[in-house]
Amino acid sequence: YVISGGNTGIGLKVANYLMATYGVTMVALGRSSISEQELINKIIPGLRYLYSYHRVDITDFVALSTVIQSIKAEHGAIRGVIHSSGLVRDRLFIAKEATDFSTVFDVKVKGLLNLDRVTATEPLRIFVAFSSVVATWGNPGQSDYALANATMDACLDYRARLNRSGKNISIRWTLWKDGGMGLDESIQDSFSSTSGVLTDQQGLD
User: Fold this and answer.
1) Cα distances (Å, whole numbers) of residue 100 to 29, 69, 87, 105
2) HSE-CB for 99 with a 13 A CA cutoff
3) Strand residues in 56-141 grouped as ranges (E)
4) For the whole model, what pTM was predicted?
5) Which pLDDT belongs to residue 179?
6) What does DSSP assign to residue 27?
7) Structure confidence at residue 20 (pLDDT)
8) Which of these, 177, 80, 178, lies nearest to 129 by C-alpha position?
């Protein structure tokens, strides 16, 4: 299974869970440079052999294609894609820059479309996108994030209409207590009073 953003936050938690529960080989994609020791420290003891990490910008189609080919050469067919990458640039709309929108939107939407294109002929069981309840009712300072997630949800609907292999699932998460998004206190309070905040165990269940 290929998981974008699988080296941190919710993506890493889900990768560890799937390896421990189902023995799935997880190949994580991310933009950060990570040492071998950092990887070892992130993975549940005894599961390191099921996990590998490739540094790549998923918004770069050519670079992503190259990495996917190397993954297939090493592991064979890809059976699942989980798109958990995301960024926030929180500020009120009137103060946002165009780059705030493009940065947030590209990682979510362009990243998803690129992942779909490079795995379009793979025998996938699932194609999962990690969306947000913000796509449903918004959140102060997160207009770009709301738009990106709502668009991503629509992309999954469209993917289903293209009859790509695998079940298409877009999960509109509420906030995970330790999800790693780095949101300020006021936004965390907003989630607490509306959709609630998930513990790791609740999210994984």
Assistant:
1) 22, 31, 10, 8
2) 0
3) 80-83, 126-132
4) 0.86
5) 54
6) E
7) 96
8) 80
